[in-house]
Amino acid sequence: LWAPGQKGWLEVSSCSNFEDFQARRANIRYRDADGKPRFVHTLNGSGVALPRLMIALLEQGQQADGSVRLPPAIVPYLQGVDHLAPV
Question: How far apart are CA 46 and CA 44, in angstroms?
Answer without folding.
Answer: 7
